[in-house]
Amino acid sequence: MTTAAPATRSIAVTNPATGEVLAQFDTQGPAEIETCIRTAQEAARQLRATGYATRAAWMRRAADLLEADREEVARAVVTEMGKTIVQARAEVTKSARTMRFYADHAEEFLADQPLAAPERVGAGQALTKYQPLGVVLAVMPWNYPIWQAMRFAAPALMAGNAGVLKHASNVPQSALYLDSLFTRGGFPPGSFSSLLIGSGAVASIIADPRIAAVTLTGSEGAGRSVGEHAGRAIKKTVLELGGSDPFLVMPGADLEKAAKTAVAARMNNNGQSCIAGKRFIVHTDVYDEFAALFARKIAALSVGDPLQETTDIGPLATLSGRDELAGQVDDAVTHGARVLAKAATPAEGTGWYYPPTLLENVGPDSRLFLEEAFGPVAVLYRAADEQEAVALANGTPFGLSSAVWTNDDDQARRIVDALEAGAVFVNGMSVSYPELPFGGVRDSGYGRELGAAGIREFCNLKTVWIG
User: Domain Aldehyde dehydrogenase spans what residues (predicted)?
Assistant: First the structure.
């Protein structure tokens, strides 16, 4: 039986815009964890026995329910982690679209693959097939409470797996909503369940032999811990960890469009996105013009109540996150960084706000040079040429996503090949799409979510040889 700490009343919903505690929930103990895993195991058996058409019908019905609940869910997300109401609604819509995408394409992505010339392996027929692993544990973060969970849940369930979600402790409302959504759509009870538990309970759940695999989106430290425990248990993992994504701007690029996109790339989700552009590396020939455009647009951002339709930037999700970001910026300034722009914020004491800020001259002795900044802070770097720009881009331990702005097709191809990242966006910003694989390299993790690759991650690729 899985063990964990006794239940305590320790999970709270705290509104980041006010600091007010809105609700509290009991954490779940060993008996509830055991029931959850046992029910998930039974659901996995049932899902494996159903056809794609049945699972797709359930998934589409769950997507319809999510869309019908959009306003309620969006407002709950805002009060839990502070993103703007406009972006919260978009997150719900994107999640429902992803559910329908996998309902439409799972059978195609997981179809048997016959070997074209089986006689080469001495067979009359040879093929590979994808089959579900069983129960998969998902450890998910707070920054996209619905989307992060859904980009695992939709493909996992359509593949015939069951999912157990350990969500971030500051978004229990989102976790509890997801706990019931798929059952409401028609999936067997236990197909996707949420556990309100602390991080200390995760290791024992990973060790449970009924858990077949683990996926985590979170910090580098959390990834190392989960990877270590899963490795001891010899279980498959997918880790999507931090990023310090470069955004390169080369001569000839549309600077007005690049600057406008740079603001969106950095400030989306109040700057709390793993694939946000964080380091803006600009060729010296266009540096001054781009910096002026970028600074002006950042200074004009509206910071305030995230429930207001016109707000651009809300509060950070946690007080500790705001303090961490403030410490990184203060350290950079102490070491010689210069503040080029800073937007206005609400009055002191009205929430966990941090002003959207643009810095330059951040040197290698500053924390911001290598650390991920998780909030509305952008850093400008001047590059003498293409080679220096690429070297700066690759000069961190991370490798999640990246972007490059150039109108030179040959240069674009060279930079795409040279950047050490899981994705490169040319003349655009890094965005996750259900149609495209998503994931990183180096300290940004391994494995892929989304696309065909994402649904195959938690399947057994079985070889079949028929004489």
Answer: 8-464
Q: Is 240 a catalytic residue?
A: yes
pTM reported for the whole predicted model: 0.95
Confidence at residue 185, expressed as pLDDT on a 0 to 100 scale: 98
HSE of 439 in the Cβ direction (CA atoms, 13 Å)? 22
For residues 257 and 183, state if they share a domain. no
Same domain, 263 and 357: yes
Alpha-carbon distance 196 to 443, whole Å?
28
Run of H or E residues at 280: strand 277-283
User: How many residues in the chain?
Assistant: 467
Question: Model confidence over 152-163: pLDDT tens digits?
Answer: 999 999 999 999
195 and 340, same domain (yes or no): no
- Tell me whether residue 303 is in a domain: yes
206 and 238 belong to one structural domain = yes
- Ordered DSSP codes for 130-178: EEE-SEEEEE--SSSTTHHHHHHHHHHHHTT-EEEEE--TT-HHHHHHH
Residue-wise pLDDT for 361-375, tens only, equals 999 999 999 899 999
pLDDT digits (tens, 9 = 90+) for 112-160: 999 999 999 999 999 999 999 999 999 999 999 999 999 999 999 999 9
Residue 72 and residue 137 in one domain: yes
Cα–Cα distance, 286 to 255 (Å, whole number): 8
Number of domains, the chain: 2
Q: What are 68-81's pLDDT values in tens digits?
A: 999 999 999 999 99
Neighbours of 298 (CB within 10 A): 25
240, 372, 386, 457: the catalytic one is 240
- Give the domain extent around 155: 9-242+443-466
Q: Which of 36, 80, 91, 274 is catalytic?
A: 274
